[in-house]
Specification:
Elements: H1 7-16, E1 29-30, H2 33-42, E2 50-54, H3 60-68, E3 71-75, H4 82-88, E4 95-98, H5 107-115, E5 120-125, H6 131-140, E6 145-153, H7 154-161, H8 171-179, E7 180-188, E8 193-194, E9 201-208, H9 219-231, H10 237-242, H11 251-260, H12 274-284
Parallel strand pairs: 2-3, 2-5, 3-4, 5-6
Antiparallel strand pairs: 1-8, 6-9, 7-9
Helix pairs in contact: 9-12
Bound molecules: S-adenosylmethionine.
S-adenosylmethionine binds at residues 25-30, 54-57, 60-61, 75-78, 101-103, 125, 127, 130.
Length: 287
């Protein structure tokens, strides 16, 4: 089986299997060899690595990954693609294809079983409709992870990188900063996919921190505070946090915490750095 990373070969395979694209699965297949190589190069894969690919499609990037990695686990939701993958990946004995919804897979168990619990590398051209739950799920379930190299919407890549005071700053930016160091590898034009998406894309690499840059008493509570702070962006922190039932904090407690941090009562979450959220959540946390 020849490499799939060009439009002609992709169309040939799609026709052979009479494949119809499913919009609901965010299917935009890569057809640009240059971009495929850039993704795989930036993921720094060696034969020591176990790679998790989310959404292999017809196996275009999977072929590149299988050439370089020790093993590849490819999780694909669309059952119509399973016979295609059996064909396009038939030459590789280091690939396991699972016909599952990635959001329902117990990834920590998979890593224990397939990689002895050693950190894996995630590489994917993600289905854009679930980028945030996939990335947050990987981080929050504490999957042993080395890095995440993913194609996402350009606008989402920007959101992953921004700091306080910008309109795109939010829970995703803070989670990315807490768990990893982000670097945009390249911007990708819609012409590199079939069918073409409506938006520009970007490849972003998240190198996972061994230790988070801030230490908190309770990590789950920190992210509850962050999410509550951005739930209603226009609200002050005092209102946003005291109205969030899961936090169990009163208005007065938030006012006192802000006072201890020399912050005005009218302050909003979008101005807070990760360090400030960490401090606030430690003050508000009750054992
Ligand atoms: N990797 C291929 C490529 O680059 O050509 C395909 C990428 S396409 C953007 C996203 C892929 O994710 C599709 O194959 C789609 O069927 C699959 N997918 C969508 N939702 C999924 C889910 N919840 N779990 C696993 N795979 C999913």
């Amino acid at each position: 089986m020849a490499y799939l990373g060009n439009p002609g070969r992709t169309v040939e395979v799609l026709q052979k299997y009479n494949f119809s694209f499913q919009k609901k699965f965010g299917q935009n297949f890569l057809i640009d060899e240059h971009i495929l190589e850039k993704i795989v190069d930036s993921a720094c894969i060696t034969k020591d690595d176990c790679v998790l690919e989310i959404g292999p499609g017809i196996g275009t990037m999977t072929q590149y990954l299988a050439e370089r990695a020790g093993s590849v686990i490819a999780v694909e939701i669309d059952k119509a693609l399973i016979p295609v993958l059996a064909d396009t990946l038939s030459e590789y004995d280091n690939v396991t294809v699972l016909n599952e919804d990635i959001l329902k897979v117990d990834i920590p168990a998979l890593v224990r079983e397939k990689n002895n619990n050693r950190p894996i590398k995630v590489v994917a051209n993600l289905p854009y409709y679930i980028t945030t739950p996939i990335v947050m799920g990987l981080f929050e379930s504490h999957v042993p992870l080395d890095s995440i190299t993913i194609m996402v919407q350009k606008e989402v890549a920007e959101r992953m990188q921004v700091g306080p005071g910008t309109k795109d700053y939010g829970a995703l930016s803070l989670a990315v900063a807490y768990y990893s160091k982000a670097e945009v590898v390249t911007i990708v034009s819609p012409n590199c996919f079939i069918p073409k998406p409506n938006v520009a894309s970007a490849v972003i690499r998240l190198q996972v921190h061994r230790e988070p840059p801030v230490k908190v008493k309770n990590e789950g509570f920190l992210f509850d505070v962050i999410r509550a702070s951005f739930r209603q962006r226009r609200k002050t922190l005092v209102n946003g946090l005291s109205n969030a039932p899961e936090l169990k904090v009163t208005k007065e407690e938030v006012v006192q915490a802000l006072l201890a941090m020399d912050k005005p009562e009218t302050v909003r979450g979008e101005t807070f750095t990760l360090e400030e959220f960490a401090r606030l959540s430690d003050i508000l946390w009750k054992e």
